[in-house]
Amino acid sequence: FDNKRASLDVGQGLGNAVAGRFNGMFERSGLFRDGVTVRRAGVNPTVTIAPGAQKTRIALGYEYFTDHRTADRGIPSFDGRPLGADVTTFFGDPAASYVDVSVHAAAATAAHELRSGLTVRNRTRFAYYDKFYQNVFPGAVNAAGDLVTITAYNDSTRRRNLFNQTDLTYDMRTGSVRHTFLVGAEAGRQVTD
Q1: DSSP 8-state assignment for residue 88
Q2: For residue 53, what are the CA distances in angstroms to 8, 16, 48, 104?
Q3: So what's the pLDDT on residue 52?
Q4: Distance between CA 128 and CA 188 in Å, rounded?
Q5: What is the C-alpha separation between 97 and 93, in angstroms, rounded?
Q6: Roughly how many angstroms between the first and final C-alpha of the chain, as a whole number?
């Protein structure tokens, strides 16, 4: 159904203590239903730094993702079965039925392993989500099965997240049994409009 998708994943050491990685994707596809399309793209570059004695790692990353697609609610039902319409038929208005999503996210992680076997890890992530959803879709079918009610609505959401998570991990052995102890805390704030 005219599906086109490309992805890229490249990682490379950039010196003794620095590595970078880039993930990216792009998709532009049609579907079997008339007027239905999907367009998505995303990038995610990251860099990891291991300063000093290599017991500390710092990872920094950014993600951008966008998704634009036709919101397709399918074929309505009639007498407990799908209505006898051609499966390519779009009920509603495909030009006015769409979803737009845009995501920006930045993350930083720092981890340090102490000589005692204790590892301290802190991760902070900030993300901004912008989503719009509008759908013109099929509702009830009349008793004769020849008329479909069309309904519509839309919804817009903007959300900002900020989360911080800190973990302490301790590994130890008692005889042949290995133990991992974990304690952590997370604080976050989410604001939605």
Answers
A1: T
A2: 32, 11, 15, 33
A3: 74
A4: 14
A5: 6
A6: 36
